[in-house]
Amino acid sequence: MLKVSQLARRYRLSRTAILYYEKCGLLKPALRTEGNYRAYGEREAKLLEQICLYRSIGVSVRDIARMLSAPQGKLTALLKRRLRELESEIIQLRAHQSLILKLLRGKVIKRTKHMTKEKWVSIMKTAGFSEADMRRWHQAFERSSPEDHEEFLAYLRIAPSEIQHIREWSAKTEG
After folding, report:
1. Region 117-141 average pLDDT
2. Whole-angstrom distance between the N-terminal and C-terminal Cα of the chain?
3. Alpha-carbon distance 16 to 7, whole Å?
4. Rounded to whole angstroms, how far apart are CA atoms 36 and 97?
5. Which residue ranges make up each domain of the chain?
6. Could you report the per-residue pLDDT of 155-172, keeping only the tens digit for each?
7. Who's near 38: CB < 8 A, 6+ residues apart?
């Protein structure tokens, strides 16, 4: 039997993540010890492995709950829906990437000393970026080129403390 912290270490999760999955009804301890500690067996470990797999492909906790209790046909339908969502996100991200490359090459806007965060956000919104898209963009930029990301934020005349804040949350992966 494994304690919460042992199970968390095995799957490289936080203890909080496991407790969250328990709260959502995805995972239950096999038993409680005399000291009221949670104890998980191999069955629960295998279930957590499946939860981690679904999370790694971006499935929501709500959909994971459906998937864990779904018959094979419904599971297939849920996975196909996620695949369509990913295809749509990829198309949207490619369009964003193309626009950003144009922006960086100066084909949409000229590099100017007058570019600000507000102007940049306005351009991105006009191009169809949602708040979530912009967060994903920052996360991808931070992961792929942290120094360039910082330089770009400074170019937008963002205060150093805000740049640090943006870079910190951008470095965190969503999960």
Report:
1. 87
2. 26
3. 11
4. 51
5. 4-69, 86-171
6. 888 899 998 999 998 887
7. 3, 4, 22, 29, 32
DSSP string, the chain: -B-HHHHHHHTT--HHHHHHHHHTTS---SEE-TT--EEB-HHHHHHHHHHHHHHHTT--HHHHHHHHHS-HHHHHHHHHHHHHHHHHHHHHHHHHHHHHHHHHTTSSS---TT--HHHHHHHHHHTT--HHHHHHHHHHHHHH-HHHHHHHHHHTT--HHHHHHHHHHHHSPP-
Q: Average per-residue pLDDT in the chain? A: 86
* Long-range contacts (CB closer than 8 Å, 24 or more residues apart) made by 89-97: 92/128, 92/133, 93/136, 95/128, 96/127, 96/129, 96/133, 96/137
The CATH class given to the 4-69 domain equals mainly alpha
